[in-house]
Amino acid sequence: MEKAKHVLDYTSIKEIKPGEIVIQTFPDDPTDTYFSIAFRTMKECGNGPNLVGKFEQDILTSCIFSFLSLESSINRLFYETFVRSDKSKIQIKKEIPQSIISYLRQSWQRLSVRDKFILLPPLSSEYEYDTKSVPFNLFSEFVTFRNLLVHPKMLTIANTVKVTTSDETSFGGELMNQSLDNSLNKTKFNLTNFATSFNKLTVNDAEKAFEIAYRMRMELAMNVNMGLIPILRSDFSENTKMKFGEGIADTIKLQFGPLPSQNGDVKS
User: Fold this and answer.
1) What is the pLDDT of residues 106-146, one digit of tens each?
2) Looking at residues 31-47, what average pLDDT do you find?
3) Cβ count within 10 A of residue 249
4) Separation between Cα atoms, residue 217 and residue 74, nearest integer Å
5) Which of 162, 163, 194, 264 is deepest in the core (most CB within 10 A)?
6) What does each C-alpha distance from 268 to 26, 197, 213, 243 come to in angstroms?
7) Comparing C-alpha atoms, which of 83, 81, 93 is closest to residue 25?
8) What region does 21 belong to: left with phi over 0, alpha with psi -120 to 50, or beta?
9) Euclidean distance between the first and final Cα of the chain, in Å?
């Protein structure tokens, strides 16, 4: 049996001849799928100020998948830096101590997503996130918000109802007031104003989560590796050809000020 020729990178494609057997390796990367699901479900929520019930699943899905796209994107950078073996592998700067390199390689799976975004980019670039500025300070609140969604605490809701109908098993009437006992939840989102309970989730939370994911990923792409540009899959959106700051950004309501100026084309 003829031995397969391993395709190392895109430059090696020029050397391939018809009839040859090749093996091409690439990462199984779900980042853009997660990002596209977040976008689609956010758009399906509509534009109402307080959409729950019918749309609460879409709101919750969009928020969580926005976060998953962030986690996946930083894991992709780890892959490109530590796992990839071809000529396209990202090179770690020579001045980085071996002890730091070894620590990241061995501890990656145990690190928080927040720590991954802090520690990894400076290994191969001159860029590091400013943890006290946009977008990282927004991202820090997003981490807490995501934890509230996936590790929910039970709260007490009290409805004040003017009863108009009743029988032995139930009653109905006019809802006069609804209060939420949030005394066990001391979380505050001073920058993002995310909802602090599931009962208060709105489409605005999904929009803010998506925008933060977009901002964080754009910072990573522009300053560390262009291959990490956020893209909407063509089967999720008609926006398949975009410029930085256009396309995706034009379809969302910017909650946290204008985006940094960017130049370049995004491939569909």
Assistant:
1) 999 999 999 999 999 999 999 999 999 999 999 999 999 99
2) 87
3) 19
4) 9
5) 194
6) 18, 38, 19, 10
7) 83
8) beta
9) 38
Structure tokens at 47: 């534009």
Q: Which stretch of DSSP H or E encloses residue 64? A: helix 56-78
When pLDDT is cut at 50, 70 and 90, the band that residue 7 belongs to is low
Place of tokens 């500025």: 133
Residues 6+ apart with CB under 8 A from 123: 81, 92, 93, 96, 100, 101, 104
Could you read off the pLDDT of 47-102 as tens digits, one per residue? 555 444 568 889 999 999 999 999 999 999 999 999 987 777 899 999 999 999 99
Higher-pLDDT residue of 7 and 106 is: 106
What are the residues whose beta carbons fall under 8 Å from the beta carbon of 247, sequence distance 6 or more?
232, 239, 241, 266
Burial-class residue 250 by CB neighbours within 10 Å (0-12, 13-18, 19+): exposed
Write the single-letter amino acid at 219.
E
CB within 8 Å of 51: residues ≥ 6 apart: 45, 59, 202, 203
Give the torsion sign (CA, 237, 242, 244, 249). Answer: negative
Q: Which of 216, 209, 252 is nearest to 134 (CA)?
A: 216
8 Å CB contact between 214 and 242: no
Nearest Cα neighbor of 116 from 98, 96, 93, 136 is 136
Q: Where are the domains of the chain?
A: 30-151+187-266
Q: pTM for the full model?
A: 0.80
Distance between CA 143 and CA 139 in Å, rounded?
A: 6
Residue with tokens 């003829």: 2
CB-neighbour burial class of residue 109 (10 A; exposed 0-12, middle 13-18, buried 19+): exposed
